[in-house]
Amino acid sequence: MSMLIHIVPDTDPFNPREDCDNLLGNMVCWHSRYELGDEQPADNPSEWALRVACEFNPSIEDQVERFADRLWDRLDSTEPRLEKRLHEHSQQVIQFQQEKVDAILDRYMIMVPLYLYDHSGITMSTRPFSCPWDSGQVGWIYVTREDARRAFGWKRLSPRREARIRSILEAEGATYDQYLQGEVYGYVVYENGVEVDSCWGFFSDSFGEDYRQNGMAEHWPDGWESAKIVVSLDPHAQLEAA
Q1: What is the dihedral of CA 20, 22, 25, 30, to 10 degrees?
Q2: C-alpha closest to that of 184 among 25, 15, 5
Q3: Helix (H/G/I), strand (E/B), else coil: 102
Q4: In sequence order, what DSSP letters do the residues of 160-226 get, joined into one string?
Q5: What dotted CATH number matches 3-14+183-241?
Q6: Range 70-85 burial, b when 16+ CB lie within 10 A, else e
Q7: Helix 82-108 crosses helix 45-56 at what angle (to 10 degrees)?
Q8: Could you give the C-alpha distances from 51 to 35, 57, 138, in angstroms and in order?
Q9: Torsion angle of the four alpha carbons 47, 53, 55, 59, in this order, in degrees rounded to the nearest 10
Q10: Which of 25, 58, 110, 199 is the most exposed place for a label (fewest CB within 10 A)?
Q11: Beta strand extents in the chain (DSSP E only)
Q12: CA-CA distance, 23 to 6, in Å (whole number)?
């Protein structure tokens, strides 16, 4: 019996952010042209961060207001450089609020930044891209510390466990990037020239050639080790060649 296995691109892949039920992270993104991730808030990133931080600590806005009032009390309305002082005042308030928000989010959440490179297609990463013109931060993938503990049955998050959570969030980001770039594959099995099996939805960043690592080979019929395995980036040409 002659067995041939064709690995080809999945032309209609499922969205891992919509069709997977075992995700740990929540992906929040902002972009003017693309709808990305799980959430696309109407408020801007700073407003979103403040809103989320206030859910954990509602007193933040009061703290910022009291800080701003103290700065206002120090201003002299007759000062010649009043406009400059007002600008400095505003910047100090913004910085104070950002520091408070960052501290609260770090206390209650684990957040990994998401960056997008947009040039002849889009690609996402949890690390900044080298091109400053066509890339930038587009959002975060995050999980609350409480949800992380609950997911694994942990009572506390040690540094090692937190590193594990971050690696999971990074892996989810990498899978979503594969989806965005079309790096999703399937296979068709032929025996004596007749199609006998097929399956789709295997994510890979190695042009589908890592069929052992991404679980594809686990679905193949017995005896596949002696089969001819061919990877093609053109599914139509590949099927015709079979």
Answers
A1: 10
A2: 15
A3: helix
A4: HHHHHHHHHHHHHHHHHHHHHHT-EEEEEEEETTEEEEEEEEEE-SSTT--TTTTSGGGGSPTTGGG
A5: 3.30.420
A6: ebeeeeeeeeeeeeee
A7: 60
A8: 21, 10, 18
A9: -100
A10: 58
A11: 3-9, 26-29, 109-118, 122-125, 135-144, 184-191, 194-203, 228-231
A12: 30
Distance of CA 99 to the CA centre of its chain: 24
The whole-angstrom distance between residue 117's C-alpha and the CA centroid of its chain comes to 13
Residue type, 19: D
Give me the residue label for tokens 């997977």: 20
| Lookup: tokens for 170 | 């990074």
Structure tokens at 18: 């919509």
List the structure tokens of 204. Answer: 């890979």
Q: What pLDDT digit, counting tens, does each position of 185-234 carry? A: 999 999 988 999 999 999 987 777 788 888 899 999 999 999 999 988 77
pTM for this model (two decimals): 0.85
- Over residues 7-51, the pLDDT tens digits come to 999 989 999 999 888 899 999 999 999 999 999 999 999 999 999
In angstroms, what is the C-alpha Rg of the chain?
25
